């Protein structure tokens, strides 16, 4: 399964300078936030595969003009082609505004999902905007990571955590780093994750199972 992960900076090669067919190889697109809604809509249209996203702290207009054709997984757990994917957008609160949380608030967001994490037997990919504290975050308050995310890794040991928020040009070190059995990936602009196809139960392949705002579970057939 080939997954395109995007965050924070629109990639010219995938938008203004797009070449037809460039996105056809991807099975899934994940957005870690702070991207133009029109850019995400373009990607999902050209790729013809699902695009799942969380909010970045600058995605304040998504409520009025959300990315068309994309699915928000912020605060939810979804299953796609056998992969269990958890979405937790937003950054550490540094001034008033949406999609910003204290560490305690992020901890409570995770706690509300604990029953489902237990029922599903954990999670494979965690999609966040901000990184965990001390793992690729910045020195300034606006770019501090969440200790709550680090505790999530210590408890559930997902295979991957992908994030944005801290641009690579900030000099934060490696794009990919290991931590306690999890591979952390800074997805600023774009990153391609190529993983073996997971074992898929009969009837699951080609479906996204997600939690809607009406709090009922639905299946979108792709």
If you had to describe this structure to a student in words, what would you say it looks like?
By secondary structure, this protein is α/β, with parallel strands linked by helices. It has a single domain, classed as 4-Layer Sandwich (Purple Acid Phosphatase, chain A, domain 2), CATH 3.60.21. 17% of the residues lie in helices and 28% in strands. The chain is built from four helices and 15 strands. An eight-stranded mixed sheet has the order 11-12-10-9-6-5-14-15, with helices on one face. A five-stranded mixed sheet has the order 4-3-2-1-13, covered by helices on one side. A two-stranded parallel ribbon has the order 7-8. Strand 11 and strand 12 form a beta hairpin. The longest helix has 11 residues. It starts with a strand and ends with a strand. The C terminus is likely disordered.
Here the CATH topology equals Purple Acid Phosphatase, chain A, domain 2
**C-alpha Rg (nearest Å):** 16 Å
User: Distance between the terminal alpha carbons, to the nearest Å?
Assistant: 16 Å
CATH superfamily: Metallo-dependent phosphatases
**What global shape is seen?**
globular
Q: Give the low-pLDDT segments.
A: 202-222
Descriptive keywords:
222 residues, alpha/beta, Purple Acid Phosphatase, chain A, domain 2, 8-stranded mixed beta sheet, 5-stranded mixed beta sheet, globular, disordered C terminus
């Amino acid at each position: 399964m080939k997954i395109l992960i995007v965050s924070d900076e629109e990639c010219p090669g995938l938008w203004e300078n797009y070449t037809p067919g460039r996105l056809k190889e991807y099975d899934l697109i994940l957005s870690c936030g702070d991207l133009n809604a029109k850019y995400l809509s373009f990607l999902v249209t050209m790729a013809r595969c699902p695009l799942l996203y969380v909010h970045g702290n600058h995605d304040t207009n998504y409520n009025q003009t959300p990315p068309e054709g994309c699915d928000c997984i912020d605060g939810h757990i979804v299953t796609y082609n056998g992969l269990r994917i958890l979405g937790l957008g937003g950054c550490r609160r540094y001034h008033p505004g949406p999609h910003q949380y204290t560490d305690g608030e992020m901890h409570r967001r995770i706690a509300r999902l604990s029953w489902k994490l237990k029922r599903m037997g954990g999670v494979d990919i965690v999609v966040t905007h901000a990184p965990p504290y001390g793992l690729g975050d910045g020195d300034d308050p606006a770019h501090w990571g969440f200790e709550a995310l680090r505790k999530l890794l210590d408890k559930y040991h997902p295979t991957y955590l992908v994030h944005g928020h801290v641009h690579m040009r900030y000099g934060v070190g490696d794009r990919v780093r290991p931590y306690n059995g999890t591979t952390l990936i800074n997805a600023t602009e774009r990153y391609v994750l190529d993983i073996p196809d997971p074992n898929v139960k009969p009837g699951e392949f080609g479906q996204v199972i997600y939690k809607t705002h009406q709090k009922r579970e639905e299946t979108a057939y792709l």
